[in-house]
Design a protein that fits this description.
This protein is mainly beta. The protein has no helices and 11 strands.
């Protein structure tokens, strides 16, 4: 079965960096477009970044452009989100997801808290 497992979250100070990981299994990872999405109690779900199956084409929300970098290693069935210059407004639960027809699969999420 399809499984996505996020890790790497934590409590950090503003201006710090974190690297989130998403380990995938149960489907042919190298064929699928992957996403990072975050959720906060006040703002709901917010799309953060996406990466094509080839790992070359990437997309970012304006709120994270220039600070976050998405990447993947298809040989390791893993995707990452490098988050730099973190701000308090980046505080959220971060999820990876993938649309593997006919449904979209989500991981359990990893909490990122940015606070001084």
């Amino acid at each position: 079965q399809v499984q996505l497992v996020e890790s790497g979250g934590g409590l950090v100070q503003p201006g710090s960096s974190l690297r989130l990981s998403c380990a995938a299994s149960g489907f042919t990872f190298r064929r699928y477009y992957m996403n990072w999405v975050r959720q906060t109690p006040g703002k709901g779900l917010e799309w953060v970044s996406s990466i094509y199956s080839d790992g070359i084409n990437t997309y970012y929300a304006d709120s994270v452009k220039g600070r976050f970098a998405i990447s993947r290693d298809n040989a390791k069935n893993t995707m990452w989100l490098q988050m730099n210059s973190l701000k308090p407004e980046d505080t959220a639960v971060y999820y990876c997801n993938a649309r593997v027809y006919p449904r979209t699969y989500w991981g359990q999420g990893t909490q990122v808290t940015v606070s001084s």
